[in-house]
Amino acid sequence: MADAVTPRHGGQLLVDQLVTEGVDRAFCIPGESYLAALDGMVGAGIDLVVCRQEGGAAMMAEAHGKLTGRPGVAFVTRGPGATNASAGVHVAFQDSTPMVLFVGQVARDQRDREAFQEVDYRQMFGPLAKWVAEIELTDRIPEYVSHAFHVAGSGRPGPVVLALPEDMLSAVSNAATAPASVDVRSEVSEASVDALVEALSAAERPIAIVGGGGWSAETTEALSRFAAAWDLPIAASFRCQDYMDNRLPHYVGDAGVGVNPKLAERIREADTILAIGARLGEMTTSGYTLLTVPEPKQRLLHVYPDSAELGRVYRPTLAIAASSSSVIEALAARPAPSVPWGAWREDARAAYEAWQTPQATPGALQMEHVIAHLNEVLPDDAILTNGAGNYSAWLHRYYRYRSYRTQLAPTSGSMGYGLPAAVAAKLAAPERDVVCLAGDGCFQMTCQEFGTACEFGANIIVLISNNGMYGTIRMHQEREYPGRVSGTKMRNPDFAAWARSYGAFGETVTDNASFADALARARASNTPAILDLKVDPKALSPRLTL
């Protein structure tokens, strides 16, 4: 790092502050608006991953933050670069993921003239980020960057956006690098734990719903101990299925899109819901129908790190503004009373296991067969990523996640997320298997990032569920306007040949019998790989056919 009293241009000052914050990888699309920051990267020891499109770069940064627990970092240029990157910022906001996005900006003396690619980023990103600011003075770069990391990682984690006027960034400063930021975690009080224990002890039919940001492997281990001691059924909120080993007898399924009807019924019939870290948003509550708005009939014990969220939709019986980790660790340390709901928990688990039994769908190659094989051959720490689409319903229903942060999927429902997330995951954990599941539509939202995987040696495996249409929208279309197909057909390339054009592994799979060997070849290829899975368009979802 440069000496604190040595004059540095703003780009070097910024990068030196990133090093102080412990940043070892950043994702970018290069732009002339932040050339000084790119210059500062030279010799800094930060692995700069050059992506293909700003949306992919931002999603990679989000996935990196989700996987590591520290803010993911992305750099994009002004105007179109920033608008492209907004998709990843929205994912980070709804997924409560720590992230810092740096956006190039026009020179300060050109502001408010609608200069080339000028955008007011405070207005643009205001609803999408925890904090948006523009650095006007080079001397204040360390202050702003340190605060950005503090905001991104504290309380309910989320994204921060900092705009960088190009003349500010190229100016020279004698400012010193600031100390590294410190995340602030809201600890639970003993009185709140007492109240929580008392309320839960009075239940007859309880169920816990867990999710949200700010978790760790240690938190999930404490959750397992707490659930076992209290014999408590644990459901995961939407796309948080890796918060508990799905093989454990207290895991009862996920409350998300395509929820097990038996689990939905159990949540409605519960007399007590312990929600820890979960916002209880639209997807987790089946469109706000599992609990009555604003006053649930169930006793709601709601733990969330942001007090503004408590009571926002549902009025809780007991509200605790504290981090999920502090509450779960405190509960796991308390002696458990004798509870009367053993049969209730056993029935919930039995319903989950029955839901895991594959339901046959049309076609020679069936997604239920694909997921069953992944369950058999992938190690416990394999990371699976996906974006949005009906194909993900098979993954969510049939795959059993065994350890924390093996599921990277957007609660925002963003298409195109799976591929950049897989690239980021493989770069962060090269020793682990990383498998991306994508629909043909979802994959082509960010397919150019397969080139990033090839360039940086991220040997991911991409399984493309190829049915030649936007399947989710076609499903809704057939329900609302049967027989009137409009705007949902797709003409696709040869995805396997496309992979081979990069020098990567590509193979087309057309039937169940061929999948296992094709996957084995992909895993042994020592390159990024694509398996083009030709599935029957009639197989809309695990429960519905065309």
CATH class of the largest domain: Alpha Beta
Instruction: Tell me the span between the first and last alpha carbons.
Output: 60 Å
**Rg over C-alpha atoms, rounded to the nearest angstrom:** 24 Å
Number of helices: 20
- The residue ranges in which pLDDT falls below 50 over 5 or more consecutive positions are none
Strand content: 15-25%
Gross morphology: globular
Mean pLDDT: 94
**Strand order across the biggest sheet?**
3-2-4-5-7-6
CATH topology of the largest domain: Rossmann fold
Number of strands: 20
Percentage of residues assigned to helices: 25-40%
Structural class: alpha/beta
What report would you give on this structure?
The protein is an alpha/beta fold and 546 residues long. It folds into three domains: 166 residues, Thiamin diphosphate (ThDP)-binding fold, Pyr/PP domains (Rossmann fold), CATH 3.40.50; 166 residues, Rossmann fold; 168 residues, 3-Layer(aba) Sandwich (Rossmann fold). 37% of the residues lie in helices and 17% in strands. The protein has 20 helices and 20 strands. The strands form four sheets. A six-stranded parallel sheet has the order 3-2-4-5-7-6, with helices on both faces. Strands 11-10-9-12-13-14 form a six-stranded parallel sheet, sandwiched between helices. Helix 9 links the parallel strand 9 and strand 10. Helix 3 packs parallel to helix 4, helix 3 packs across helix 15 and helix 13 crosses helix 14. The termini are far apart.
